[in-house]
Amino acid sequence: MDQLIGAMDRISSQYNVKLGIIGDGPEKQHLEARRDSMDNPECIDFLGFLDEYERVLGHMRACDIFVSPSTREGFGLTFAEAMAADCSVIAGDHPDSAADEVIGNAGFLSKPTVGCISETVEMVLSGKKPEVEPRERAQRFDWDNVASQAEDAYRSVI
User: Fold this and answer.
1) Domain extents for the chain?
2) What is the pTM of this model?
3) Distance of CA 45 to the CA centre of its chain
């Protein structure tokens, strides 16, 4: 998140953008201090932990871009949710992340550095679209499709 805040610091003077950070954790104070040292700190809101899943999805539906530069993503359910909400997804490009397997060509990978994240966000803000429509890719992870695939796998083993 520190890298994403740095990227926002770079692009916030050129673009009318707003970053909402959902969640809490031990780094929150550090991240808020980093935000407060920016030239445009008002472009970042810390929304905290949201109890209601619908509120999280509401924020995803309201945004154009979903960025998660995490270097350690397991499956990355948030990527599938963001694609289903029709967001352009930017994920961290790292060998310890499964982001590339989830988003495929329906989003963008970025090295988790301030420079690379800001370049990728600017590219999307300038109109670059992924090769595959995000909602189409998200259908692969729909619970009904996943359950059907699991059932097919079990039947083939039996």
Assistant:
1) 2-157
2) 0.86
3) 16
